[in-house]
Design brief:
Elements lengths: L8 H18 L9 H14 L4 H24 L9 H17 L5 E5 L2 E2 L5 E2 L2 E5 L4 H36 L1
Antiparallel strand pairs: 1-4, 2-3
Helix pairs in contact: 1-2, 3-4
Length: about 170
C-alpha cells in the first residue's frame, strides 16, 4: 500500500542533507560534489542561500572588495565633493558599508552616486550606497507573504463592503 506524505521545504532539505551525510559516511571518499544527489543538494543550497558552495561566496566577496577599492580611489581623489568630511569620515562610512555587505552575505552591489548640481542650482555631494540583494528563497517567500496579505486584505474589504451594504439596506 502506498502512502502519500507531505513535507515542507525545510523538512525536505533536512531529509536530503541527512541522506547525503549517511551516503558520505558509507563512502571511502566523502567528497560528494559530483553525481546527481550532490548536484541537487548544491542547487537547493544555492536556492536558499544564494551560493552553491563556499567558492561562489568567496568570488562574490572578492568582487565586492575589488569594487570597493575602485570606488575608494575615486572618492579619495575628490574627497571634498563627497559627504565624507575627511579620511576618517570615509573610513567610518566604509566600515558601515562593509558591515551591511557582510550582513547581506555579499549578495548586493555597490553604487556610486556622483556629486552634481541639482535643478535648483544647489550642490549635492556624492556618496557610495550599498544595495541589498536577495536569494531566490527570500524573494519567493516575500512574494508569497505579500500575496497572502493582499488576498486577506481583498477578502476583508469585500466582507466589509458586504456588511456596509447590508447595514444600509437595514436602515432604509
Amino acid at each position: 500500500m502506498k502512502r502519500k506524505i507531505r513535507l515542507t521545504e525545510s523538512e525536505l532539505t533536512t531529509l536530503i542533507k541527512r541522506m547525503v551525510e549517511q551516503a558520505q559516511d558509507g563512502m571511502e571518499n566523502p567528497e560528494m560534489e559530483e553525481g546527481w544527489l550532490g548536484d541537487k543538494f548544491k542547487d537547493v543550497k544555492r536556492w536558499g542561500t544564494g551560493y552553491g558552495d563556499e567558492s561562489e561566496k568567496e568570488e562574490a566577496e572578492k568582487a565586492f572588495f575589488d569594487k570597493m577599492d575602485e570606488l575608494e580611489s575615486e572618492v579619495m581623489e575628490d574627497l571634498e565633493n563627497f559627504r565624507y568630511e575627511d579620511e576618517q569620515g570615509w573610513e567610518d562610512a566604509k566600515e558601515r558599508i562593509i558591515g551591511q555587505a557582510e550582513d547581506n552575505n555579499f549578495m548586493g552591489e555597490l553604487k556610486m552616486i556622483y556629486p552634481r548640481e541639482t535643478n535648483r542650482g544647489r550642490f549635492m555631494p556624492g556618496f557610495i550606497n550599498y544595495i541589498k540583494g536577495e536569494s531566490r528563497a527570500k524573494t519567493l517567500m516575500g512574494n508569497l507573504g505579500s500575496g497572502a496579505a493582499g488576498a486577506t486584505r481583498s477578502y476583508q474589504s469585500k466582507a466589509q463592503a458586504n456588511e456596509n451594504r447590508f447595514n444600509r439596506r437595514r436602515l432604509r
